[in-house]
From TrEMBL, chain B:
Keyword Transmembrane helix: yes
Any Pfam family the entry gives: BPD_transp_2
Signal sequence region: none
Classification lineage: Bacteria, Pseudomonadati, Pseudomonadota, Alphaproteobacteria, Hyphomicrobiales
Keywords carried by this UniProt record: Cell membrane, Membrane, Transmembrane, Transmembrane helix
Segments traversing the membrane: 12-28, 34-56, 87-107, 114-133, 167-185, 215-238, 250-276, 288-311
Protein's UniProt name: Inner-membrane translocator
UniProt GO cellular component terms: plasma membrane
Source organism of this protein record: Mesorhizobium amorphae CCNWGS0123
Subcellular location: Cell membrane
Membrane-topology annotation of the record: Multi-pass membrane protein
Length: 241, 320
């Protein structure tokens, strides 16, 4: 099977700092892949390169067999790469409804279908449990709900690859359980690349785990293998297995 | 936005149009003439609001789009003897083309740089008008003869210098532009424009080519302003370079800020308000600009979102 996403020698420096340093990475379709690593390891920078938010210093990105290294971000979104922000970046002054309507209406090709936007928006809000708050300005939602709104916006893009950057940050435990269910459901129709710090969430969701450290991939494997990997424990998990 | 039932906003806008229509029959001559002028200039303000209010791009060069319409219509009538509809179309075309070129160049910048770039282009436009004084009349301007300002429709002919015809023509243009603006801001495209204003990076990450969307907005805005300029030339018969000066780039900004940025009726209210404050105060004192200045400062202090913007915020959330 051909990977959905491949990077070759992908690098990005900020001044002298090599935030992402020659990363070779492959992701199979249908997979849920977790990316872990200590703070500042380059996880956000790596997925930002994939989504096109920032430009690489060198290297190549291939999505579904096509070189997308030089495509602008919006064109990658149209190919099916959706990115949800680590730092919540919803449209604070617009209602939750309008926030989701933006991605929904973009994926609709039939401009005349009047009810289609509403149906699509409400479906995405239902899935994330925000339907009752559709008319609240996004800025007035609780932090956890804003995180979920980010996910709803990503979902509404009908992506083939959904990149979630620390989506459970700020969620209550009860909300995390729902979130795990939600990601399982999303994974039926999309490949998921999930940056997470919350180990229980990773262990429940991930098919495979990639560990970043200092801009490089330190290890990659099944959750079990990663848990037992001594190097990883050293760099990231401390000493507790 | 698109959520509110469409009935209320449309009823309100049609009501405003009906009121302006009725006023034509009751206003004394002086106010009748002034209101016709205000409606034409409110179209200029609506065009400005399209870009400033909804997309959040502050231009300091919109006088060039108004003047493109003014000269596009005025010069074709004056030198080429074109009829009224053809001249009006020429004005629109000049504005649209100019806006396309300026948009392609100026949209590479944002914020303060965008303000400066648009101001520089407008200044170039102004100087070009002065340079070709043998065609444009320079700072004297041109007066379009009454005979040229007759709209021939089949066997009927409408004299645009007749006050009632002029008022109704101004109202017709105002109404069309108002309803177009309302339709745009309530549309899916309007939602994208507001998203760009609120957070352009995020909008890109939802798959929108924000540059193209902004470029379309600049062209729509420039064309509306050109429609105002072209109507001004044909209805009031004067084409002059003062309309291309920086003052006429700042005026629509003031009108929109006063009335309420990103409200569909704010441009009308702001233009109306400013004209009447000047009109009333200049009757009392020669220092009327001082009073206008104070009125503006008070408004900004107590109604930072403009008259209609504040009303929307406090009482009428459904206002488009
Ligand atoms: N725009 C930028 N300019 C300069 N340095 C940056 C920029 N973005 C990231 N960095 C630096 O690059 C390194 C990698 O940052 P990145 O945000 O990718 O880490 P991360 O793995 O996502 O960390 P976290 O777990 O804290 O989110 C850090 O040292 C960070 O300070
Ligand atoms: Mg990060």
């Amino acid at each position: 099977m051909m990977p959905l996403l491949t990077t070759k020698g992908l690098s990005r420096s900020f001044g002298g700092l090599r935030a992402v340093d020659g990363v070779d990475f492959a992701l199979m379709p249908g997979e849920i892949r977790a990316v872990i690593g200590p703070n500042g390891a380059g996880k956000t920078t790596f997925v930002s390169l994939v989504s096109g938010r920032i430009q690489p210093s060198s290297g190549m990105i291939v999505f579904d067999g096509a070189d997308i290294t030089n495509l602008p971000a919006y064109a990658r979104v149209r190919l099916g790469v959706a990115y949800t922000f680590q730092i919540t970046s919803v449209f604070a002054n617009l209602s939750a409804y309008d926030n989701v309507a933006l991605p929904v209406q973009r994926t609709l090709t039939d401009g005349r279908s009047k009810g289609a936007v509403r149906t699509g928006v409400m479906a995405a809000l239902e899935r994330t449990g925000l339907a009752a708050r559709a008319h609240m300005p996004a800025g007035q939602l609780s932090y956890g709900h804003q995180r979920l709104l980010e996910v709803a916006m990503g979902l509404a893009l009908k992506p083939r690859l959904l990149i979630l950057d620390e989506p459970t940050q700020g969620l209550a435990d009860s909300e995390i359980d729902n979130f795990i269910q939600l990601v399982r459901e999303i994974a039926k129709s999309a490949t998921v690349l999930l940056i997470e710090h919350n180990m229980p969430v990773i262990m429940q969701l991930a098919d495979r785990i990639t560990v970043f450290n200092a801009g490089k991939i330190l290890a990659e494997g099944t959750p079990k293998a990663i848990r037992e990997n001594a190097e990883v424990q050293q760099a990231y998990l401390g000493t507790t297995p | 936005m698109t959520e509110a039932s469409p009935a209320k906003p449309y009823a309100l806008h049609l009501g405003v149009i009906a009121l302006l229509f009725a006023l034509s029959f009751v206003l004394p001559d002086y106010h009748h003439g002034l209101l016709a002028r205000i409606m034409v200039l409110a179209v200029f303000a609506m065009g400005y609001n399209m870009l400033f209010g909804y997309v959040g791009l502050l231009s300091l060069g919109h006088a060039m789009f108004f003047s493109a319409g003014l000269y596009g219509a005025g010069l074709t009538v004056y030198h080429l003897g074109w009829n009224v509809p053809a001249a009006f179309a020429a004005g629109l075309a000049c504005g649209a083309l100019l806006a396309l070129v300026i948009g392609l160049l100026a949209l590479r910048t944002t914020g303060v740089a965008f303000m400066i770039v648009t101001m520089m282009f407008a200044q170039v436009f102004y100087l070009v008008i002065l340079y070709f004084a043998s065609w444009t009349g320079g700072d004297q301007g041109l007066v379009v003869q009454q005979a040229a300002r007759v709209l021939v429709l089949g066997s009927a002919s409408l004299d645009l210098t007749n006050p009632t015809v002029r008022y109704m023509s101004a109202l017709a243009l105002f109404s069309i532009v108002l309803l177009i603006t309302l339709a745009i801001v309530r549309s899916r495209y309007g939602r994208v424009l507001v998203a760009i204003r609120e957070n352009e990076e995020r909008t890109k990450m939802l798959g929108y080519d924000t540059f193209s969307n902004k470029l379309i907005a600049v062209v729509v805005s420039g064309t509306i302003c050109a429609a105002s300029g072209a109507a001004y030339a044909l209805l009031f018969g004067y084409v002059g370079s003062s309309f291309a000066s920086v003052q006429y780039s700042i005026l629509p900004l003031l009108w929109v800020l006063l009335g309420g940025a990103a409200t569909t009726l704010g441009p009308l209210i702001g233009t109306l308000f400013m004209y009447y404050v000047i009109d009333i105060t200049s009757g009392f004192t020669s220092a009327y600009l001082l009073i206008v200045g104070i009125a503006l400062i008070l408004l900004v202090l107590f109604f930072p979102k403009g008259i209609l913007g504040s009303i929307r915020q406090r009482w009428l959330g459904w206002l488009p």
